[in-house]
Amino acid sequence: MDNEIHTVLGASGAIGFAIIKALQNKNLSIRAVSKHPMQGVKWVYANLMDTVLTQKAIQGSGYVYLCVGLPYDSAIWASQWPVIMKNVINACEKSNAVLIFFDNVYMYDPYYLPSSFDENTPQYTLTKKGITRKQISDMIMDAIRQEKIKAVIGRSADFYGPFAKNSPFYISFLERMLLDKNPYFLGSPDKKHTYSYTLDNGRALVLLALDSSTYGEVWHLPTRKAITIEQIIEIFNGILKKNYKIKIIFPIERKLLSLFSKTIKEASEMNYQFEHDYIMVSDKFKNHFPDFHITPYELGIKEMIKSFCKKNTNR
Predict the structure, then answer these.
(1) Which residues form the NAD-dependent epimerase/dehydratase domain (predicted)?
(2) Does residue 84 contact residue 49 with C-beta atoms inside 8 Å?
(3) Which of 121, 109, 205 is nearest to 155 (CA)?
């Protein structure tokens, strides 16, 4: 199946970019699917809420990467994600394509999260976004059990990297630094948190796709050790040659600001992830792919900064 088409749904996003780069490095046949034209790669328009357009976009594919990024809005997630997942699963079944789903970790039970967590951590959540993520992940696992499709799920920690506007390293952070303003943070500054680099995610997802022994399972995508936001700002300051200070937004302030900022309101329900150590274990992947090189934070953050500085220069 190595010569068949690798179709990337959500190709214009940061993870789509990373997957395409990984596929290009392996000289594999690529079909980029998004709502807006893309240059340098074969591109197909599709609205994944539409059954027919989804089937046309996937038809003839050997592998389908689902890495769509919907607006960070719990109501949009609840209404659109199940429809998109159903359409993609059905289209993969018709085309006999392997589905590779780029997932997050919102479905895990917060009770278990102060200690490190892996793929076997119990799933239970009362957050709106977490409920939706569990629902669509379960849809894939049900389709696998029913032998409708072959699929693999790659779960990422909060990610950062080139063009990653939905990254916690960008929102209220790098975006403010590029305006020469101090960043702010909606969590505890001394707590450790795990992050994934987008280009590592892209390479990892392609490896999972090409290794049929990984199918039918959930894999935590590879990460380096957890790091505090204070350590992160040191890296940013070192690269930017600045001395920015972090403004910590405490819970009382957060509640007030959420009345005026939808971004903060939407982020608030997930903020438990930043109020204690949040350490995602990816040993399963590392043991299966022992030669995989994980990008150091310093290099990944440097590439992220470069991508946004270049983007701003081109405007």
Answers:
(1) 8-211
(2) yes
(3) 205
Backbone Cα Rg of the chain = 19
Q: Tell me how far the alpha carbon of residue 205 is from its chain's centroid.
A: 11
DSSP 113: T
Identify the helix (H) or strand (E) that includes residue 132: helix 128-145
pLDDT digits (tens, 9 = 90+) for 180-228: 999 988 888 889 999 999 999 999 999 999 999 999 999 999 999 999 9
Strands (E), the chain: 5-9, 30-34, 43-45, 61-66, 98-103, 151-155, 158-160, 184-185, 195-197, 218-220, 247-248
- Can you read off the two tokens belonging to residue 126? 């009362």
Q: Where do the structural domains in the chain lie, given as residue ranges?
A: 5-161+195-225+280-295
CATH for 5-161+195-225+280-295 (3.40.50.10490, 3.65.10.10, 3.20.20.80, 3.40.50.720) = 3.40.50.720
- pLDDT digit string (tens) for 237-294? 999 999 999 998 776 666 666 666 666 666 667 778 888 889 999 999 999 999 999 9
